[in-house]
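User: Here's a chain of 310 residues. Predict its fold as tokens.
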Amino acid sequence: MLKIEQLSIDYRVGPGRLSILHNVSLDFPAAQVTALIGESGSGKTTLTGAILGLLASNAVVLHGQILWAGDNLLGRNQEALRDFRWRQASVVFQAAQGAWNPTLTIGQQMLDCCLDHGVSDGPARMEKLLTQVRLDPVRIVGAYPHQLSGGMRQRALIAMALMLQPELLILDEPTTALDLITQSYIFDILAEIHQQTDIAMVLVTHDLAAVARLADRVAVLYAGTVVEVAEVDEVFANPRHPYTQVLLNSSPGIHGALPTAAVSEGKPPDLRQRPAGCIFASRCPECQPDCLVQAPLLGEEQVACHLRCS
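Assistant: Prediction complete.
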């Protein structure tokens, strides 16, 4: 469905630049949930912003392609991107309060999306989707965002993202700032939606329990580089890249177990000037001399590590 090839993006910062994404190549299969995991600053949100054409004004796309059904999204004009965002790919942002217009009711905003894209059966779609995310349409349609709880606003946002029946749903930290019970409730709803519709999803999250629960595949990012891609069960059972191992070991287990190992020592790389070798070398407990000289490629084995590639 979606294919990213050799995508590199910098941000202009003062007189210099920060290398945020570097030669990222990823496939997003239809009808699957792909999770993007990695610590803050690894480039997850920049990657999804590039897919949707919503990059910050100081972003510079150096090279690469984002292919949707063979068509490069980076070559589309704003009108074509605007149509793509709702009809083919939609997004649920992490801050539901900031995603809604506080001066309009939920119903007005959901119907505006349909009217703007020439959809005539908006009211019926809205009622069906609000019910699907376990909200009462009678109450929600006439309510203003501030009259709903955080969890209700987020569920309404999921419903709105599905109004034009997109093929891809991007979830950017969809449960940030919500309590654990509400988070679990929302992931139950997302799993149910995926099961019923087979919609492809991209899940950006730090919540490894949510990854284990919802995702089919996992892509691990570190400092703007994809270091490992694998099926979700394989990542948890047998993480191959040293960074993936550190990431899993430094987080509570999916059953609430405490971390079994400390995070790696060393300093993150300076993204104003990328190192010549492996991007994780300065923090890797298994670093070898060759790792400082040549950057490993992801390759067919889907792990960017000299020690793990044959």
